Amino acid sequence: MGISFIIFLVLGFFIFLSSFFTVKQQTAVIVERFGKFLSIRHSGLQLKIPLIDNIAGRVNLKIQQLDVIIETKTKDNVFVKLKVSVQFMVVKETVYDAFYKLEFPHDQITSYVFDVVRAEVPKLKLDDVFERKDDIAIAVKRELNEAMTTYGYTIINTLVTDIDPDIQVKNAMNRINAADREKTVAEFEAEASRIRIVAKAKAEAESKRLQGQGIADQRREIARGLVESVDVLNRVGINSQEASALIVVTQHYDTLQAIGADTNSNLILLPNSPQAGSEMLNNMVASFSASNQVGEMMKKGNRKRAKEETKKPDPIIESGYEDENNEDDETE
Question: How distant is the alpha carbon of residue 109 from its chain centre?
Answer without folding.
Answer: 46
